[in-house]
Amino acid sequence: MGPISKRHHQRQMTKTRPNILFLSAYSPWPKITGGQLRSGYLAEAASRIARVRFLTLHGNISPQPPRGIEEITLRPDTTASLWPLRNADRPLAPAIPEYLMRRINRHVAEFKPDLIILEQTIIGGALESLEPGTARLILSSHNFDSDLLQGELEKRADGSLTKLGRARLDRALAQEIGIAKACDLVLSCSENDRQRYLAEGGVDSVVVPNPLSNAAAFDIEIDTERYANPDVLFVGSMRYAPNVAAATKLIRALRKPVVDRGGKIILAGRYASRLDVEGIHKNGVSLISDPPDILPVLASCGMTAMPINEGSGTRLKAIEALAAGLVVIATQKAVEGLELTPGVHYLRAESDDEFRGQYAAMHANPEECVAIASKGRAFAEERFSPEVFEASTFAALDLALKAKRKDPRKETLTAPSSNRPDLENSRSLHKPEQPCLIGTFHKTGTTLFNNILRQLEKTAGLIVWNPDRGPKPEAQWDVCFNWHSNFGAIDVWPENHPTTIVVRDPRDVVISSAYYHMKSTEGWLHVERPEFDGMTYQQKINSLVDMKSRFLFEMEHTAKDNIRAMLNRKSDPAFRDALFVRLEDLVDDVELKFFSQIFSHLSFSGSGLTAALDAAHRMSLFSGHTNKHVRDPKPAQWLSQFDDELHHAFTDRFGNAAERLGYRAAS
Known about the structure:
Radius of gyration: 27 Å
Mean pLDDT: 84
Largest sheet: 8 strands, parallel
């Protein structure tokens, strides 16, 4: 089908004014995220030629939805998401709870829609119990969600997937294609995604390009003076992991050349303050968190750099930057799906050296910047203006009304589990499907997971074997929890069990260990030791003159042992298929994305996964749970606590330990 001509319009639809029902996991108003922008503009365009009812499954609706749209939330009393309801068999679109489906079907019967639009794959589970009547079904695809899932699962140092991760990803893609096949029409956001649907499942789709959020961006002036400004801008939500990774790469690649030219790197967007640590501003980086209007920020710079290597979908921030007349220096991934020509509409860079080279060349040639920015803006206006989006939407809805109606319940929305043992008759449904292993190290989340597993012992009947606490249970254990990740010492091997290992930035391990050992009442800290001239460990560390001396002491004692243990497990072939997770990612995992990844990997599913995620939420600091063992949960404490001497001391002892464990190097 492909893209639709702008000349195709709503001539047929305005005669009958159809009813269109949107099903969404959340409200798109106010339009802040990329998903909300696409959903909101799609519904607003539809409301100009149809009666629109927008159903959200949870959370608060907007105080006043746009004129012509009736917005209703089915669970106004909660902001809980569908994310935790996913399981190993349904990794992208969970089954919608029965009571919610009854409410959805009541709206379908009462509203009698001509079209039902499913906003994103995650809502696709509704198809199994939906009673659409004569309505045609549309999937509004914002991206390939299985690509996003793959980014989460690729946690090994070599970037490959574990065996369990690969199986889960295969099921995710099968579910994604199954949902697309069950619908009468799919709206993809780029020609890339259209070709992907064809290749993966033989599903043709209609391209409705993403809209520009504010057409006033086209009015920002393009002149040589603007591009003489040495500042470099990056815009994006800092709750989105690919953006955080890109911002880190940007600082590493461009901070020195930008500062040398008298400029700064500007990081702007939602939650940008999360990156705020002591000293970041004086090191050539400026943070603009939650700006009320992004246009003045875009107008203040001449260049933006987008070193994005993860995620999928059409890049709304790239479209916005092109429209605003910014010179875009970006990876191919950052502009994926936009069909831009490198060297004409934007400048391509993949490595740090290439980003530095493109930045230097552009800063030295403002006239060339004007030429590239002008061509980029013209391209954005031709492809992504509000008029183009609206015309494409009208034509797609017209086409959907004429489509041959399918029965969605004839399609398979889930892929069968592969080689999974039949445990249903002998094991509780709350338990993992096979015995699994969780390993931590000192000061890397031991107390957090101890609390979670104790909760699951009470609520789900799990049998947890903790070798540090007692002997092996007589009954078959469900989870072996090892505080030192030393499973070989108890003759239990990760090759035979789904395994998760929790690590932490080794520099923060040094800091946390020092503060903890100064005050803790743990018994081993109060045993006299001959190597300390009869002092205990706690007496020895408290006898040192300052925190720098205590950090150096930890680098030679307990912290050293734990850092080396983390490195050994990371490189041990026995842990090849283990899922390594960073404690820092769990600290504010409010949406339980990382916890969901952990417990799904450990073979929890269905009600067992729900119970595990509930326990994780209850025991995490972000839920209000208190933990006397936690002094400060903030990540990257080393940035403010380590001076040059400590950095050198750490590197002399541990080399590139931080990078090997998945953390950024000190600049």
